[in-house]
Amino acid sequence: MAEVQLVVQADDFGMCHAVNVGTVEAFRDGIVTQVSTMAACPWFTEAAALGREFGIPLGVHQTLTCEWDFLRWRPLTDGASLVGEDGTFLRSVAEAQASVTYEDAVRELTAQVAKFAAEGLAIDYLDVHMGQSATPAAYDEVSSAAGKPFIYGAVESQRFGSIETLSDRDANVKRAWLLEYLDKLTPGVHLLVTHCAAAEPELGALHKPGSYTYRWAEEYRLSDQELVTDPEIRKAIEERGIELTTVRAAFSLD
User: Per its UniProt record, what InterPro entries does this chain match (predicted)?
Assistant: First the structure.
């Protein structure tokens, strides 16, 4: 076992077809080691099939929000506090924090876990969409019931030497940032979160021009995709003696 271990995670699997295609490529041909998957999203069925086909280590990307203008998804349950006037999830974490009740959150997140089981998918971990939990206690309860770690929880997150996100950086500095990040990794297990997608027209149709989410639709995802599938980045990881791993393997969750 190497002194420095790195989990490279791709988020939002199941969100749309372009994300699914890019994420599979990033896992098969790149450095992505595990994939956070959204059960409430329209392309989850395809993601589940791809996960089974390629043996991708999966986590539940629990979601109580939907940030896009034109790609809108609904809860699996009927909790009134979960939705806006159009019946879809609220657009921001702040809106969800102000609206979602503990009871509705637990029921919805439990249903998302159950949908994985219905597809015959093994769950390695749970995390959260958009980086912040709307109702923290609900995530803890659901992960406890599932018997899987909520990796951003107060206890579980402390097991990592660091947790960083590659995505939300300007494309022209992202490569330099990643190489410096690799250079500075200390002994322990580190988590690097990415958002991958194939260059499909679908991405440009997620939002209105000038929407606050526009950089997350194409720019961040395509630049992440380029880096995590770049052979030179894999070579840099190998030259530094860094071991690519998963949460399940690093923390002996079998």
Answer: Glyco_hydro/deAcase_b/a-brl, YdjC-like
Decide: residue 111, CB within 10 A, 0-12 exposed, 13-18 middle, 19+ buried: middle
Tokens coding 113: 């876990």
Cα 81 to Cα 251: distance, rounded to the nearest angstrom: 36
Note the pLDDT of residue 254. 66
Nearest-CA neighbor of 105 among 132, 73, 139?
A: 139
DSSP E strands in the chain: the ranges are 4-13, 34-37, 58-62, 125-128, 162-165, 188-194, 243-245
Where on the phi/psi map is residue 28: left (φ > 0), alpha (ψ -120 to 50), or beta? alpha
Structural domain boundaries in the chain: 4-251
Angle at 227 between CA 24 and CA 212, to 5 degrees: 85
Q: Is the Cβ–Cβ distance between 169 and 141 less than 8 Å?
A: no
Residue 11 and residue 195 in contact, taking contact as beta carbons nearer than 8 Å:
yes
Q: What is the pLDDT of residues 22-60, one digit of tens each?
A: 999 999 999 999 999 999 999 999 999 999 999 999 999
Return the axis-axis angle of helices 17-29 and 219-228, rounded to nearest 10°. Answer: 20
**Cα-based angle 139, 188, 56 (whole degrees, multiple of 5):** 55
Angle at 211 between CA 209 and CA 215, to 5 degrees: 95
* H/E segment holding residue 17: helix 17-29
* Fold exhibited by the domain 4-251: TIM Barrel (3.20.20)
The ranges of the chain with pLDDT < 50 are none
